[in-house]
Design goal:
Blueprint lengths: L1 H7 L12 H40 L15 H6 L24
Length: about 100
Amino acid sequence: MADKILEINPRTELASVKENNHNVDEIVNKISALELQIASLSERFSSSRTRSSSNSRARSRGRSRKRFDPNGKYCYYHFKFGKKYFLDKCKPSCNWKQPENFREQ
């Protein structure tokens, strides 16, 4: 059947595909430009993360608590617990006499 169709209407055209190098070059150039933009954005993002983490660390530091001084005027228990502490472990060298002394620290 196909042979009869070709006999009635013979094709004299030849179909071919012409490669267009101009379009391929344009696409390659656009891809290269996108790669450069991605690299630039990646560099900016990583450097801003480094800066922001170092800044936040410096900002988040609060005032430090006083440390116990073994040569200080109060024993560890009065230094740590103040007037809430019971005197059974108090050292003889402790100057704790009255609860208002704790406010001096």
